[in-house]
Each structure stands twice: as structure tokens, then as C-alpha cells.
């Protein structure tokens, strides 16, 4: 990073360099506690050092850089995002929220400017959870709600998280010390690619996030009676899959009726699963998300009622097992306002939108106010090698982020 190039050019060069820390194959594949993670962490730490930050790696593999403020506000502003990717993912999901703050701090440092508070940039080691099937390990450790029970979880090669940490040169016993006290943290703010098509459709490079959608994931089972595909008349059937098909269409219809609601059935299985057997069983996944918990609860109740109606009419029995339930996170209104002002300050219409995807901010919301900014991505595509942003948008994102820091400072004074 030199003093002459634009912040956007620096961001693109840094995300390109991080993208090379990857397993072979299309896109970027960089997982928790791997040699690629180690390579990326060294790059990030070097950039933080160059930007005038004090750096360390904590016991869960997060790279932490602190840029000292002038001391007038004792609490620290935390920002950052995740360094890991999905399998064959893109180069901006997560990384943009690490390198943009570093580039902004480098600019402040060159000008000899200090904020009223210390600012910490954290490159979280694990958010996507590809290797161990867990999520938000890095940010949970920082938020102090890391579950030590997960240390025994193993990857496909049988290596536990505890073992992988030790091989990486870290001591799992040190994880509790990575936690911050709520009273020491001013807020957590995160810049992220949108991963959706709204900003592009609105012709806007950036937007401010009002909420991160809550999600409920369930496994639904319909049970009827299996039978001979040739001999059981249509009127005498209790076909579980036909019932499930009707129910899945009801999910689509009910979620389309609500504002900002999304519902998805991504897995369907029929049993016994033969061309000449009426399906006696059908199971499917259900994923429902909304930025407001009351809206999500309401549509889930309507969906259940619809499932019961379908089952009663078709003589099927119904089981619903909830496998995951995460409440929505509302971004702090003062941080939403700071984001709006920062965007408007660049002469851009400040659009507020919600996030349908989960982020590290969800974990941090346990200890502090959270705020998020989104940067437009091409076609709304992410978790894909085709994930793309423009240099101009990266530059706008950085300029807005710098203003965001100033607005946060004003509102915290
Ligand atoms: Zn992400």
C-alpha cells in the first residue's frame, strides 16, 4: 500500500493477494486453522503493522490489530469480518470488511490523525464453519460466549478443533482471555458485501443495514402409507410426497405474502424412494428468515397450520423438528443514523436494507451495539468464484467507512 494509490486500488490489490491464500481449484477455499489461514493471517498482520496498529493473534486464531485513539473515549470500537471462505467461494465475502478498515486506518495514520477511541480490526478465523461444521467461532470467542464443548468437534480427517488449534501453535486454554468485557466496547461495526441484488437494482454503491434477519430451520416429516404404484387406486392413497409437495408450495405462497420474509425448502427426500412405490414418507428442510422476530413467528405459525390442514385432509401424520433458531439482530438506531449520514456525506442516497445472511455482528450483538454497511456486489452473487465488486465501489465503501468512523466519534462524544 503506497500513499499515492486510491483506497479502492489498495483494497483490490489486498483482496487479490488474500485470494491467493487458497486451496487449489476455482475461487477461494480457505478454511479455519489451515496453512492457507496461516498465510492470510501473516499478510493481514503485516498490513496492520504497516498501518500503525499493535497486532497479535488471539487463542482462537483471530488476527487483532489496535489503532490507538487520543484517549478521550475509554471504550474501544471493534470492526472487522471473517478471513475464512466457503468451499470455492469469492474473494470479498468477509475479506472486504477486514481490508477496508485497515486501508482507512493507514490513511488516518499517514495524516497523523487519531480517533477519540481505540479502534480494533479483527480478522475472525472462523465464520463460515466449513471445516468443523460450526459457525462464528472467532466472534463468539471475542463476545465471551464461546462454547468449550465444540473443541472436541472433528473435521473429516478426525482432527479436533482443540488439536487443530495446537497444531496451529495456539493454546485452547487461552480462549476465555480473548473475550471482551461489554463495558470496554463502544460498538461493533462491520462492512460487508451485500450478497444480494438490492443495491445493484437501486443503482447504489453502498447501503446501511437496519437488521440481520433471524432464521428458523426445521426438518419436517410427513408420514403416510407406502403401497404398490399399480394397484392402489388414486382415491385410496396416503401419498406423503404429494402432501409434502402441496405443503412446499404453501411455504412459497405464505412467505411471498409477507414483506421481507423469505422461506426456502432446499432438501426433499421421499421414502422408500422407488419408482413403483407410493411414497410412505417424505421429509424436507424448511428455512424461514425475517428481519423481525414477530413476523417470522407469525409466518411459521401459518405454515404449521397449513401443514396440519394438508396432513389432515390427506390422512398423513406430521412431525416438525426445529434444528436451529437464531433471533433477528436489530442494528442500533444511532449506528444506522451514523451510517446514513456517512453515505449522504458522499452525496449518495442513503438506502436502508436488512441482511438475509448471518454475520459476525450477530455474535458481537451479545455484548455491544452493532452496525453494518453493505457494498454492492455484482448480480448479488456470493459464495461463488464469480463474486465481484468494482474498484470504484471499494473506494466509495472506504470513503463512507472513514466518514462512518467520524460520525460514530461525534455521536459518542
Ligand atoms: Zn461473510
Write structural notes for this entry:
The strands form three sheets. Strands 1, 2, 3, 4, 5, 6, 14, 15 and 16 form a nine-stranded mixed β-sheet that branches. The model has no long low-confidence stretch (mean pLDDT 96). The radius of gyration is 24 Å and the shape is globular. It has eleven helices and 16 strands. The protein folds into two domains: 7-211 and 329-412, Aminopeptidase; 214-326, Alpha-Beta Plaits (2-Layer Sandwich). The chain is of the alpha+beta class and 413 residues long. 47% of the residues are buried. It has helices at residues 7-19, 35-50, 96-110, 137-143, 161-167, 198-202, 240-257, 293-314, 333-345, 360-364, 391-412, and strands at 54-57, 63-67, 76-82, 119-124, 185-193, 206-212, 214-223, 227-228, 262-264, 268-271, 277-278, 281-290, 317-326, 329-330, 352-355, 370-375. α1 (7-19) packs across α11 (391-412), α7 (240-257) packs antiparallel against α8 (293-314) and α9 crosses α11 (391-412). The site of zinc ion has 6 residues, from loops.
